Amino acid sequence: MIARAAADGCTTEVSTILHRPQDPNCLSHDGMSPLGMAACCGHIEVAQLLLEAEAWINEIDHDGNTPLTCAAYRGHNDMVHLLLQAGSPTNTTNIHGDTALSRASARGYTDLSNVHGETALIRAAKRGHLQVVRSLLAAGADREVAMQASKPPKLPKAGPSWHSSG
To answer: How far is CA 157 from CA 42, 73, 162, 163, in A?
Structure first.
């Protein structure tokens, strides 16, 4: 019941269910956590409620995807930012060996930056990887976004967290 409400973005219903109390980690019939469903669907307010109720941030689904992996893959940038701020690990891999960053990159999100504000374009250029720079530019990496992203975002410093600057 809570998983369906989370997937549907029903903030009031999720809040009501959590006040009964209800386990915020109760899996759906297909093995997804309420936080995972909210993350996949981009429901920020629902995710915030679940995180406040101590939902497991690194709960994996049947494919090994975390809420962060799903949000990154679907391009829910605000959700990615929320999950990173809440301490979601960035190096967890799914059953295919993909991390949240690799899943986002596979979808064409070329202007990702780490907590130091470095996009892949900046990192490749700093290290002299000319072919990588050319490939990123050909794939649509934005030079302006790379320059704007060189200012560090205010994110936690726990690990190599990534976020989308687009």
So the answer is: 24, 23, 11, 13
